[in-house]
Amino acid sequence: MARHDPSQDRLIQPNAENTYEVGPSDLPLACPMPGMHLWNSHPRVYLPVESSPSVKCPYCGAVYTLKGAPVHGH
Question: Considering the entire predicted model, what is its pTM?
Answer without folding.
Answer: 0.66
